[in-house]
Sequence to fold (1268 residues):
Amino acid sequence: MRMKATATLALVASLIAGMTLAATGSKAPPSGETPATQARLATKAGLVAVARAGDSLVAVGDFGTVVRSTDGGLTWSQAASVPVSGLLTAVSFADPKNGWAVGHGGVILVTRDGGNNWAIQHVAEGKPVLLGVHFTDASHGYAVGAYGTALSTVDGGKSWTPMPVGEGRDADLHLNHIFAGRDGALFAAGESGAAFRSRDGGAHWERLHTGVSGSLWGGLARRDGRVLLLGMSGRVLESSDGGSSWKGLESGTSQALTSGVERADGGLVLVGSGGAVVASRGGQLATVIRADRQNLAAVVEGGSALVLLGQSGILREPAGK
Amino acid sequence: MLERLISLLRGELQAEAAERGPFERRLVAVAALLLETMYVDRVASEAEHEAVKRLLMAHFHLPTERVEQLVALAEVRYAEALDDWEFAEAVRVGFGPGERQEILTMLWEVAYADGVMAKLEGRLMKRLARQLELGEDAVELARAAAGARSGLLRGTPGEG
Amino acid sequence: MIEKLVIGLQRFFFGHRLLTLGVLLAFTALMGVFAAQLRMSAGFDKQLPQDHEYVQTFNQYRDVLFGANRIIVVVEAKKGDIWNEKALTKLYDVTQALFFMPGVDRRTVTSLWTPNTRAVQITEEGMKAEDVIGGDVTVKSLTPDNISGIRERTVIGGFIGSLVANDGSGAMVVAELADPDPATGKRLDYFDFSKKLEAEVRDKFADADTNIRIIGFAKQMGDISEGATSVVEFFALAFLLTAGAVYWYTRSWVLTFLPLASSLVSVVWQFGTITLLGFGLDPLAVLVPFLVFAIGVSHGIQQVNYIAKEVINGADGFTAATRSFTGLLVPGTLALITAFVGFATLVLVPIPMIRELAITASVGVAYKIVTNLIMLPVLASFFSFDAAFVARAGKVEAMRNRLMANLGVHIANPRNALIGTLACLVLLVVAVWQSQGRHVGHVLPGAPELHNDSRYNKDVEAVVSRFGLGLDMLTVVVETPKDGCYQHEVMAYVDRLTWNLSNVPGVLSAQSLPTLTKLAASGVNEGNPKWASLPQEELTLGEAVRQVPEGLRLYNAECTLLPVNLYLADHKASTIKEVVAAVKSYREANPFPGVTVRLASGNAGVQAATNEVVEHSELPMMLYVYATILVLVFLVYRDWRAMIACCVPLTLATFLGYWFMKSLDIGLTVATLPVMVLAVGIGVDYAFYIYNRLQMHLSHGEDIVTAFKQALREVGVATVFTAVTLSIGVATWSFSALKFQADMGMLLTFMFMVNMIMAITLLPALAVMIDVLVPRRGPVRAPLMMH
Fold:
């Protein structure tokens, strides 16, 4: 009899506890942890970054939108599960299956199936805005963000440790983009014209002399070893010596440039705000301003076409442009 | 029910009259037509009233009380009706041609009862004769017969 | 007992004929004075169901949010575009004209020239908001240079497609109206306003190179009102046609004059009463007096029919009139009561305009009891009918009787009756099936009340095709705790809601504070797209929010309101329904403590409310009317057979009407909802007239076939003719400039004729069938009205 009573009491108590938990659980969780929803117009969401995963393209952007294309950007489908609904700012794949994305709220997401299903692997301390991510292989990866945030992992993202990039007054500068050069050196582009290079896999970083004070937003490494940095006011900086010295290229625009890609035929395409598309023609850079003045954030080649990403989603420009 | 439906489809069923009331419809109809003839000249004199009752008693062999009831009912029916068609129909359906001729004569007798002949009455007779499916000369025949009888009753020669 | 009452009334009125007429005449004169003051009154709020959740939201926030009462004027270059001095100058002039027009809320006037039109740009220095046309540029100082600057800023500001056409061929001036006027409290006279727009904007500024397009609720109502004034011509036409028809029927000027005069008198009384009650005549309801007039004439026909028959049988005018009075007082009152009930049930619909309509129509019908059932016979008693008339009428009468008798035999033949009934049952099934999927609300863009090629609808087409913005906006009102816009969680919630709703098919675009705040946040960070997200910290978020122009009305001063404006592809009921359902399912699946998601403001929002109410009201209305008819039929005849015989034909006619509506694409709206309900209330009249005589003859002991033949002879032609007069009254509307009037005219004509045909075919068929299959066991009771 008393046993029964105790059991009943325990049952009731756990029920109440459970309900309380459920009740508190039903309170809206902080943003970044509300999963993304399947959206009919996923390809029209504001998309800001794209990466290759084998033969596929994976693009990320606002509302936790992740879209994939296996046909060179002609058709896209939304990822089945993304655990956040904030803005994802950068994506990088080590191989066709393993990829990472970072975004606002300090979130680092990982996928093991080529970008269809994602999970939160890590939330950076202090929830800083993460702006860039790069994985050199499935184990070694780097993430950078606002106010000098920089993290690195050697175990495929299971654990992350802070990585010192800028020193002294440079330590608080926003780091906007991180990428690797042909020779394996790491480059980080930041605000106020700051750029950093690491030749030892992120253990030590040095500030580069870019000679400019406008923010640098992006960069890429060309197949022939040349490195480019892009940024505000139409800035294009080129280095032929691995980043030690830089010269400015005439881009033909004063719009901020966000991202660029080297095409299969060696041509260069850079995109930026206000519909700016900079392309190389016979060694020179020339700018065309799109009639729709869309702010473009990323560009990638899809087959022989160009896939542009911007505030209104995906734009595909067929070959010839 | 199903059988009824089928026989209905075959056209075998006919509507049945709900014969209610103390008098046959055709009797009431005759009484009503007599009343109509009485009223047609706008003057309903005592003589005409008596004539109606007398004719009904004589023709249908009814006692006085019954005749009174019949006339009362006929009055009500007549007032409710918008025209005399239903009564003429009932007479046409309910009596043979010989009886119908006789009824027409009775109507003329009512018309003569007050001693005044109006054009309206003539018109009424012609119309009724048509409805009762009596021939062209039926009206004249009936009038002559009625005139003779009225003359006989009153002792004055009626109009020829 | 009723009998005694009827006879008592007859003695009273006919005993004091001059007194009666005198009183009625005096009343008519009095009412005439008021009737002369009758005005058209359109109203925006009148058409909204005031108790509906969405309308309450709309009313609560109408000062804060974008209203639904907008006026849009487009300056359209016939050739080329507007990027030249002439067109831009015109745009300025139109902006000024609208600004100074009384009734316009000046704070809301928006065009390229107004200071609230700013191009927001994200540059290195942050968010830069520039006037599209700065204060330094005036009409006189327009040069190709600064025009291209204006054009540039227009593109940057994202106004292509909203304030400027997609192809640059036109520019828009938008304004909201203040109704009622905040200063005087007076309601806006839409007719007046519309005329002013024509005179001071269109006529003044349109020329060989420029079109001026004007759309918006006020203009729509103004055009409808104008179309409705031509109703007087229709009335005259209908009156003449009716007079001609009645004369043909009666062959007597006296008998033509009587029904027309009495109906006119009751119309005068009706208009007088409307004015006294403080109503005006709503342009959408202007047909109702017609209808009531037509009902009056049809009842008048029954009266003169009775009188004529009496006269033919030898009665004088006085006698005929008294007999007609007593014979028709009760059945006539009954028929009018059913029409009255039909109208009165409309009071249950919670839309003020329909309530007004219900009251004015009910009053009109009630008055007919006096004018048609009392005044007419009393007046008739003064006239006498000569022998010539009697002969004339008698001949016609005989001919009609023969026709009806023959018809009656065929119809009432039991075998034919069965076949006919079965055929009608099949027809009923087909009609029910075919009438599924009738649409609610408006399907076509523009104003459905007007024809497709009307000025207004052509303007709508021009604007919709060249501009990207939807003219149909639904605003979801999100109520938040105080300073909600500075709280990341709240803003993120609204952001997700906005994104969710943008994805609903039918939503062209969605705008809310978070949407623009994200842009501002990016702007604060040199315009970097990777920063286009809601800041986590309150201070940073606040900074971003403050960059968003307040004129966009995406938040209020206390930050307790965060509206989400949805621009829809069209205002079809199906589109709106889908959006509303999406909002409801989202808010149910994603509750947020302290935040309430409310529907709905914007013109599509209130349209949603109206659609819902109209759709849900139709069935209850019809059921009420049917129930009343069933009860009345039972009270009068005390016979279940009568209930079937009277109501089944009505049902068939109603579904045929629905089928007709679907075929003609007539949607169920505020204007058309009353029509079907009225049609039922009126359609049953025929059944009463016929069944009355039928029952009476049955109570005399006749068989059903003969009884029906009689009934048909007595009232058949009058019944057919009643339908004809009613149809004449409404058929003339088919030529109206207002599409909805034309639609209603056709629908009502159809309903009247179908109901009549049902009454003389299906009703007797059913009666015969039932009698033959289920023979009576007891005597037939005479109907309640017979003495």
Notes: Residues 62 and 83 of chain A are 13 Å apart (CA to CA). Helices of chain A lie at 2-25. Chain A has a mean pLDDT of 87. DSSP finds one helix and 27 strands in chain A.
